[in-house]
Amino acid sequence: MIFQSERLIVKAIQKTHKKDFVELLTDEKIIKAIPQDKPSKESIEEKFQLALSFDGDIKGNTISLLGIFEKQKEELIGIAGFLTNEEDDKELGYRFRKQFWGRGYATEIAKKMIDYSFNALKFEKITADVWIENIASNKILAKFFKPVKEFYNECDNCTDRRYALLQSDWN
């Protein structure tokens, strides 16, 4: 286990989680909210192998993909990502399988990821990017972060809003 919240656990993804992992990358409703094109089988396999190769070093990795689970359950319900963006800032990301939307899990995991980033990983600054039309995710991020810019995301062909938070503003 990497960390936990009141109802959720974040830990390494295992081979047995592949079906649910693939759903998180390919379900139309999930990727429409980002928005992203459906990834190729090769891209999905690369991301799954990346998740499986997690070595416990979030701070030293450019990308760490971890599983989100409900306590006392082994079903993968989401992904928590710790990334490094193009400005070399630490970036947080998460997504949940559709049937787990609307339960407050995204707010809960965002808060714990922020707390973990500052208190365990000792990051000075963290960011999060979201498509400007994803109202639910923007509301969640605005609870904790400050919007700092909007930009055209060439990869996803959309306009994203970047949020940022300094450690000194968290504690």
Structural description of this entry:
This protein is an alpha+beta fold. It has one domain (about 5-125): Gcn5-related N-acetyltransferase (GNAT) (Aminopeptidase, 3-Layer(aba) Sandwich). About 30% of the residues lie in helices and about 30% in strands. It contains six helices and eight strands, in the order ββαααβββαβαββα. Strands 1-2-3-4-5-6-8-7 form an eight-stranded mixed beta sheet, sandwiched between helices. Strand 4 and strand 5 form a beta hairpin. Helix 4 (about 105-120) packs parallel to helix 5. The two termini are about 25 Å apart.
Strand and helix layout:
Elements: E1 3-4, E2 8-11, H1 18-26, H2 28-32, H3 41-52, E3 63-70, E4 76-84, E5 90-96, H4 105-119, E6 125-131, H5 135-144, E7 146-153, E8 158-166, H6 167-170
Helix pairs in contact: 4-5
* Overall radius of gyration: 15 Å
Going across the major beta sheet, what is the strand order? 1-2-3-4-5-6-8-7
CATH topology: Aminopeptidase
Largest sheet: 8 strands, mixed
Q: Output the helix-strand order.
A: EEHHHEEEHEHEEH
Strand content: 25-35%
Poorly predicted runs: none
CATH architecture: 3-Layer(aba) Sandwich
**Annotation field: number of helices:** 6
Feature tags:
single chain, 171 residues, alpha+beta, Aminopeptidase, eight-stranded mixed sheet, 6 helices, 8 strands, 32% helix
Brief account:
The chain has 171 residues and is α+β, with helices and mostly antiparallel strands.
